[in-house]
């Protein structure tokens, strides 16, 4: 007699997509109502109600178009399809196609983390001096190289791809933001409009990631193609981005004198405790996001649970979009809260969501909700940190500061990957708990920054 074992597969309610879409739509289009109702006579904090600011609107649209294309490029080149089997990490199938075992996979990823640590850390300082336009061009060239490596079989090298993607990721974190802020100031646009662009960057980036993943899923239906179509798609988008930047981006930033830059960087970044607080906050959110993308799949499919992981992914990105739309509501002119207050709360909520996942076994539905809460907080944190950088940091030092903040996170990621490659003595729960602790300490640091802003003459040792 044959015994049939039935395995129940968990499915996401389709209404979740509708809820996220409607929530984002309502959050964006109800923003003017709350802003104007609370701040009479104040300038509109709503990015689509600019009145006479037509030049800024043209500038913003042009930049967001470039940024969206670059985000699609980032999502396509670094795409790892989620196969409907139980895996330790998302994207494991691509490595298995090239004969890599678990330890080799960890070492390949560690090579990328090392590239981001040793090369990416200094890339921001370098391109602060020679101009963000060159950084954006390097970003596109790196993705073009990765696309060619994926397309041409005899050129294939997972090690080179990992290092190029890690370096491109480090450059992406600062190059477009630095260019936008520099051009915004050069054209004399209002400072409050800059804050609108920050949250729109997060919103458009998330939307582009969803679109790129959808296209990638279509292109790699036949997994035996070994992702050559995906590589060609990434290479094509890299060429389009390069041509668009060359056409729409006229002129270069003046090259900074090394001695002058070093003196300014030392005074404003290395010796300013406020900047170090922002460095730690950025490092914490970067580390937690990387840890999440490594561990969310094995956490959800633990104990042999079956689920369509590729259908859950859009909910996370949609939650990030929703979180970004909350930024103008809590950080605009009409808000009674300071940026530091709402940012502290976001860090604490994100840490709490990860802590529940770490210390308490949960059903899949609750895990998805907790991860969505985490991503909604990330969507709010990213533009908030960008706003604080504009408040406390000179624009010409922005790239060096951002890449410096990524160094601690990349160092910890490198150590964890090397450990997992050789002895696996660190559990997944321990890694996620470390990310939660980092978020809590970041929230505490932002709270200290708020107190210092409230009492600027108070000695730091008394805070």
Short characterization:
This protein is mainly α and 463 residues long.
Commentary on this structure:
- The chain has one domain: Growth Hormone, Chain: A (Up-down Bundle).
- Helix content is 75%, strand content 1%.
- The chain is built from 18 helices and two strands.
- It has a two-stranded parallel ribbon with strand order 1-2.
- It is globular.
- The N and C termini lie far apart (74 Å).
Which labels suit this protein?
18 helices, 463 residues, single chain, mainly alpha, 2 strands, transmembrane helix, molybdate ion transmembrane transporter activity
- What is the H-and-E element order? EHHHHHHHHHHHHEHHHHHH
What is the name of the CATH topology? Growth Hormone, Chain: A
Largest sheet: 2 strands, parallel
Based on the coordinates given, report the CATH architecture.
Answer: Up-down Bundle
| Total beta-strand segments | 2
Which CATH class? Mainly Alpha
In helices, the fraction of residues equals over 70%
Residue-averaged pLDDT: 78
Shape: globular
- Terminus-to-terminus distance: 74 Å
